[in-house]
Structures are given as C-alpha cells and as structure tokens.
Design goal:
Layout: E1 8-13, H1 28-42, E2 47-52, H2 60-65, H3 70-94, E3 99-103, E4 112-113, H4 116-124, E5 128-132, H5 142-152, E6 157-162, E7 167-168, E8 180-181, E9 183-185, H6 186-191, H7 199-207, E10 212-216, H8 222-227, E11 234-237
Parallel strand pairs: 1-2, 1-6, 2-5, 3-4, 3-5, 6-10, 9-11
Antiparallel strand pairs: 7-8, 10-11
Length: 239
C-alpha cells in the first residue's frame, strides 16, 4: 500500500493482552480481537512478527518470592509464552491468516525451532510469525526477546502494545495531570526513568537505533494510522 511508513514491524504483546476479564488465563475472544487487528495490518502489505509475554499464565517473580530457582522460574515463563503463541496462532488461522510459531525452546511437536532465515522467509511469503520461548535463555525478559528478534528480522520499528495511548511522565491511571510525550529520545527516557521496556531491551534498541512506538492496540484504528505515518502514541528514537 502506498504511503506506508513501516513495511515490517515487530509487535510486542504482554501476556495480559490475552487474559480473561479476571486478568488471568487465556480468553479466546481477546485473542480473536488481536487477530482481527493484525489481519487488517497484514492486508495493508505490512510484514508482522509478534513476541508475546506470559504474565497471564505465570510470573517468575512470584516463584522467586516463594524460594524458586531463578532459572527454573524463567524456563517456566518461556514455556508459558509458547502456550500464548499457540492460542494466538489458532485465532489467526481461524480467520484465514497463515501463521507460523517459532520457539527458542525446542518443541518440535507444536512449533518450529527459531531459525532467523526461515522466519524472514515466512514474512516474505506474507505469513505472520509468532516468536515464543523468549530468547531461550533465563535472566532475559520477553522485552529483550522482542528487541533482539526485531533486529534479527530487519523490522523497521518495535511496537509495544499497551492499554494506554503512549508514554506519560507518570501513571495516567493514577494522576489525571500526567503529561503525554508524542516523541522522546532514548536518553530522555532513560534520564526520566520512564518504564518503556526493561533496561537490556532498551539498550539494545538505543545502540542499534531501532525506534520504539508505544501505543494503545485496543484503539480500533490506532495501529493502522501509525503505520500510515500519523502521530499516534509515543515514538522513542535518537531524535
């Protein structure tokens, strides 16, 4: 489609994006809403890859507080991301969007192993690719996995989907006077200690000049308008 600002994106979703109204588990209706939004983007001619978290199913922090080994807790989280990836794949396939799940933790019965060149080939063929299993290593978050995969596949932007319409100087849900940033540099975000992504992921994006776009995925037209170059959400770049 003419006028597109971005032709290949990495969409980072939290596990809560798939959760039930109670905030846990997997809600097929939530998965279907995401699938419809992404299908709209695919039909614009945009290559879409996705990394999803596992907060709706498992939080390693809880395990640590109960005395669990950190690596074990992290591996459990990686496995939970694959469950979310499969739920998303099912939602995509049910509406005719050809999808592939690749995972950094090998599970050949349910998903392909992560292979960079194969992932790129899937995108070139118009398939949505969902990356599960994080980076495959403990001690790294799915934010870091998103930044890493985005650079590996040549994404032009890393889009972090949230339930607010951008980055604010404080929590807009707690402070009605919170100020939204339309654009901010990596260094400004670091200086203000804004929680855009975890520090490892943020450093990867900054060092490789990969822009981060934070927006509300549940704004029906927000993602589409952002891809067309409209000012939507908050962009984080080198300025």
């Amino acid at each position: 489609m003419e006028g597109l600002k971005y032709h290949r994106i990495l969409l980072k979703l939290s596990g809560e994006a798939l959760s039930t109204p109670q905030g846990t588990g997997i809600d097929p209706q939530a998965a279907n809403r995401i699938a419809l939004t992404v299908r709209d983007v695919r039909e614009m001619g945009v290559d879409v890859a996705i990394v999803i978290g596992a907060g709706n199913l498992w939080r390693g922090k809880v395990g640590l507080e109960l005395g669990m080994d950190r690596a074990t807790a992290d591996y459990m989280g990686m496995i939970a991301t694959v469950m979310n990836a499969l739920a998303l794949m099912d939602a995509f396939e049910s509406i005719g969007v050809v999808t592939r799940v690749q995972t950094a933790v090998e599970m050949q019965s349910v998903a392909e192993p992560y292979i960079r060149r194969r992932a790129i080939r899937h995108l070139e063929k118009g398939r949505v690719v969902i990356f599960g299993g994080g980076t495959g290593n403990p001690y790294f978050s799915t934010d870091t996995a998103a930044a890493l995969r985005a650079m590996e596949i040549g994404a032009e932007v890393l889009i972090k989907a949230t339930k607010v319409d951008g980055i604010y100087d404080c929590d807009p849900n707690r402070n009605k006077d919170a100020v939204k940033f339309d654009k901010i540099t990596y260094l400004e975000a670091l200086g203000r200690r804004l929680e855009v992504m975890d520090s490892t992921a943020f450093s990867l994006c900054m060092e490789n000049k990969l822009p981060i776009l934070v927006l509300n995925l549940w704004d029906n037209s927000g993602l589409r308008r952002a891809l067309m170059g409209e000012k939507v959400g908050t962009i984080v770049d080198s300025g």
